[in-house]
Design goal:
The structure holds 2 protein chains of 2 kinds.
Chain A (H helix, E strand, L loop, with lengths): L19 E8 L8 E8 L4 E5 L6 H8 L7 E6 L2 E2 L5 H8 L2 E4 L11 H6 L8 H6 L4 H13 L15 H14 L4 E5 L7 H18 L3 E4 L3 H7 L2 E6 L2 E6 L6 H8 L7
Parallel strand pairs in A: 3-8, 3-9, 6-7, 7-8
Antiparallel strand pairs in A: 1-2, 1-4, 4-5, 9-10
Chain B lengths: L16 H20 L4 H18 L6 H36 L6 H14 L4 H12 L3 H26 L2 H8 L5 H37 L5 H10 L3 H28 L2
Classes of the chains: A alpha/beta, B mainly alpha.
The complex binds adenosine-5'-triphosphate and magnesium ion.
Adenosine-5'-triphosphate binds next to α1 of chain A.
């Protein structure tokens, strides 16, 4: 099939409110030393929001609180009419399958094939015996192939993931996230391990494939130029707090100095 | 530290005193222990002499028909013991090993499982076999039970270690899709630890083959029982036949397990 043709999600998602509201989110890995300090943020249910900020400022912590890979210390994370911060067990798993995630180190299961990795995106919906016997639904398998075509890897479906290059792996990671038919995509520095050209291609891919499905994306990114180019909104963090929030065109050098601190490096 | 500290004061490889003292203590003890054994040259020579006489009575090995049928029966039972105990050992070791892995299972369960594994591994299979012979009587059942205990202990410990060494990134990514615990195990844990676990299992089958002869000596059935009887009857030529057969089976087992391991790499 034509790799550039958009794939319509099989379920009609029209009408779902995908707004994410974070209220007074605090996370302290060690008591008394909060990494996130009372962060509040409302992300509209569309477009790409880029979070920038220096290393160690809590960007990953923030994004990982949203799908509860990290448990927040206090605060609310409201999404799809639920407070993610309070979910547990089955309810949490059902929420997680609505949220796709793309990782800096790709985090593919190395010894599984490319298509198996993409199909792990369905695990929230598939009973374990089907996963064990690889008896995924024909519809899911068909969709996995379509997504691989859409990220340009249709020919590599049965290769083992550990044989791919970094850029190819990240494409698989994106296909896996899309396979969930998510209502939100989180990306934690999806391009930091890639060369500049591949980085742009990956960002383009995320923006395009999420955009055509109207899925909101929150992306942590160190590359300010990429953030400006692809994001509809930039959130600047420093020391666990939000210090800038606005469209990329409003982001000026003075803001960057405030976010990253120091001087000289901006010349 | 201030930048002006003299370079000579900086030590790149500080001495590891606990390790040094430990080694010295060990060396002293080995010398001491050797002297208390009253190991003398004369004693060694008498031993050699007796060994020689024993060896000469073993030749030629006894391959008569009735001995052969005894041998086959014993060997088949040992194979049964080895295979049954390996299969059940593997089945029980999988949940126990997972439960003992501290990166997957909640701390209390992990510690309980580790305690259980330590208990299973406390005694040598021969001692466990003696206990089972007392409990369920002479025969293959006692041998199978003893080797199941040994296999469970060994395999679950190594499985837990393999699971703890796997990449949590891969696990995390699968967990983030909303997969249930079992699905995470099937799609993220199994692919990572499977090749190593298969290797451990092949090794365990191999060592159960050897140990099945051992547990037989204390009443656990199989070729070990045949060997024990032959010894008691001073049938040293039959003893040699049995020993040769055990060597042959163990070598075949070793080749097979190596083959299985390569298959799953
Ligand atoms: N699992 C953890 N346990 C304890 N401390 C942690 C843990 N994860 C992160 N931290 C600490 O929290 C702080 C914020 O880390 P985080 O990974 O969120 O930063 P970041 O903004 O994503 O940085 P980077 O840009 O380098 O990825 C750091 O000081 C880090 O040491
Ligand atoms: Mg980070």
């Amino acid at each position: 099939m034509d790799a550039s043709a958009p794939i319509k999600p099989p379920v009609d998602d029209a009408g779902v409110d995908r707004t994410l509201i974070i209220r007074s989110l605090t996370k302290a890995y060690r008591a008394g030393q909060p990494v996130l300090k009372n962060v509040s943020l409302k992300v509209e249910g569309r477009g790409m929001t880029a979070i920038i900020g220096p290393s160690g400022t809590g960007k990953s912590t923030l994004i990982r609180c949203i799908n509860r890979l990290v448990d927040p210390t206090a605060g609310e994370i409201l999404f799809l009419d639920q407070d993610i911060a309070k979910l547990n067990g089955r309810a949490l798993r059902q929420m997680r399958r609505r949220i796709g995630m793309v990782f800096q180190e790709y985090n593919l299961v190395e010894r599984l094939s490319v298509i198996e990795n993409v199909l792990t995106g369905r695990l929230g919906y598939v009973p374990v015996w089907r996963a064990w016997l690889r008896r995924f639904k024909a519809r899911d398998i068909e969709r996995a192939f379509q997504l691989l075509d859409a990220v340009g890897l249709g020919a590599l479906a049965t290769q083992r993931a550990d044989q791919l290059s970094g850029g190819q792996r990240q494409r698989v990671g994106i296909a896996r996230a899309l396979m969930q038919e998510p209502d939100l995509i989180l990306a934690d520095e999806p391009t930091s391990s890639l060369d500049p050209k591949t980085s742009v291609e990956i960002m383009e891919l995320i923006a395009k494939r999420a955009g055509e499905r109207d899925i909101p994306v929150i992306v942590n990114i160190h590359n300010v130029a990429l953030a400006r180019r692809f994001a509809d909104r930039v959130v600047g963090m420093s020391k666990g707090e939000i210090v800038f929030d606005g469209p990329p065109r409003d982001l000026e050098d003075s803001h960057l100095l405030q976010i990253y601190g120091g001087e000289g490096w901006l010349e | 530290m201030s930048m002006s500290a003299p370079a000579a004061k900086r030590v790149a490889f500080p001495p590891n005193w606990p390790a040094r003292i430990g080694l010295i203590v060990l060396a002293v003890y080995v010398v001491y222990a050797a002297t208390t054994l009253e190991f003398t040259w004369a004693r060694f020579l008498t031993g050699l002499d007796q060994g020689g006489r024993f060896l000469s009575r073993m030749f030629p090995p006894d391959f008569s028909a009735d001995k052969q049928s005894l041998l086959t029966a014993g060997m088949m039972e040992s194979l049964q013991i080895a295979i049954l105990s390996t299969v059940f050992g593997i089945l029980f070791a999988m949940p126990l090993g997972l439960a003992a892995a501290r990166n997957l299972s909640p701390a209390p369960l992990a510690w309980f499982s580790r305690g259980l594994i330590a208990l299973l591994r406390t005694f040598h299979p021969v001692i466990v076999a003696i206990l089972f012979v007392k409990a369920v009587g002479f025969g293959a059942l006692a041998g199978v039970l003893a080797l199941i205990v040994a296999s469970m202990g060994f395999l679950s410990k190594l499985l837990a270690e393999a699971v703890e060494e796997m990449s949590m990134n891969q696990v995390e990514a699968v967990r983030a899709t909303g997969a249930s615990f079992l699905s995470v195990v099937v799609m993220a844990v199994v692919p990572q630890v499977m090749p190593r676990f298969v290797g451990f299992c092949a090794y365990q089958l191999d060592s159960n083959l050897r140990n099945s002869a051992l547990v037989g000596l204390v009443g656990g059935g199989g070729i070990g029982a045949t060997l024990f009887t032959a010894f008691q009857r001073f049938d040293y030529d039959f003893v040699l036949t049995i020993v040769l057969a055990i060597i042959a089976v163990v070598m075949v087992g070793e080749i097979l397990s190596g083959f299985v391991r390569r298959l799953f790499q």
